[in-house]
Amino acid sequence: MENFKVHILGCGSALPTMKHASSSQVVELRDKLFMIDCGEGTQMQLRRYRIHFSRIQAVFLSHLHGDHCFGIPGMISTFGMTGRTAPLHIYAPASYEPILQQTLHFFCQSLEFKVEYHPLDTTKQAVIFEDRSLTVETIPLQHRVDCCGFLFREKPTKPHIRRDMIDFYDIPISQINNIKAGADWEMPDGEIIPNRKLTYAPDPIRSYAYCSDTRFIPQLHEIVTDVNTLYHESTYTEEHANRAKIYWHSTAKQAATVANEANVGKLLLGHYSARYDSEEAILKEAREVFPESYLTNEGDCFDI
């Protein structure tokens, strides 16, 4: 099965601490890298955890709060100094375009690669990226500014060839692609060997949902139903539910409620308030609702 992982670069919230970096993750699928959010210092985290700059194809920004986007100027500048030539695609709320263009004009005039900007409508669920192996959809969220999450969904793969049966029936290598596409095999005497005897089921489709800063949305589980892994911000415990309401964030219990109702495989917690010296209370609260809950920490890598 091909790689499908998420690397945690930062899982803190807006107030900087010595313990956690600002929000950023890298999704790895089949040797392609996609960044989600880019808080201040993200490029240092890439260095620290030895994630190759050159392999990042696109950056998806959930919203325009500094702890999710202040790392963009420095990272683009560094890409220029390291000789990047491949385009860098940035997907962000529509209001980011003038900020990005001013940044590029002022700091990054001699880039040898293009920065392609893609404005997002954060109010709609829509496919915003697609290639041969995956799609990326927006997930409308509710925060103090325009905000959306992202749903990475692997595309179906072809069935696996049963090499023993290919050899048994002496099927030419030139016919492998046809058989993967569903074709039967006709023997010289006219006997038809059905495709089901020549192949076995493809790998199951995997999916990862990233729900950045948001207040609790009772209907959110409908969008992320059955995803393998859900990241949902869990800034506070229920003890500080009033602050979550004021600042349009979620508690660990609310994040776990979404995971439970969506029947996800596992829940990743993050975006911790700086008021907590330890996140164990956050984890405990989430696991009381959804046992397959896990804390994220810088340097963690989770298999999807």
UniProtKB/TrEMBL annotation:
Cofactor section: Zn(2+)
SUPFAM superfamilies named in the record: Metallo-hydrolase/oxidoreductase
Annotated EC: 3.1.26.11
Gene Ontology terms, MF aspect: 3'-tRNA processing endoribonuclease activity; zinc ion binding
Active site: D67 (proton acceptor)
Keyword Hydrolase in record: yes
Catalytic activity: Endonucleolytic cleavage of RNA, removing extra 3' nucleotides from tRNA precursor, generating 3' termini of tRNAs. A 3'-hydroxy group is left at the tRNA terminus and a 5'-phosphoryl group is left at the trailer molecule
Enzyme class name: hydrolase
Keyword Isomerase: no
Residues given in the record as Zn(2+) 2 binding sites: D67, H68, D213, H271
Keyword terms, alphabetized: Endonuclease, Hydrolase, Metal-binding, Nuclease, tRNA processing, Zinc
InterPro entries on file: RibonucZ/Hydroxyglut_hydro (IPR036866), RNase_Z/BN (IPR013471)
Complex formation: Homodimer.
Membership in a protein family: Belongs to the RNase Z family.
Function, as annotated: Zinc phosphodiesterase, which displays some tRNA 3'-processing endonuclease activity. Probably involved in tRNA maturation, by removing a 3'-trailer from precursor tRNA.
PANTHER family: ZINC PHOSPHODIESTERASE ELAC PROTEIN 1 (PTHR46018)
Protein name, UniProt field: Ribonuclease Z
Source organism of this protein record: Prevotella bivia DNF00320
Protein's gene: rnz
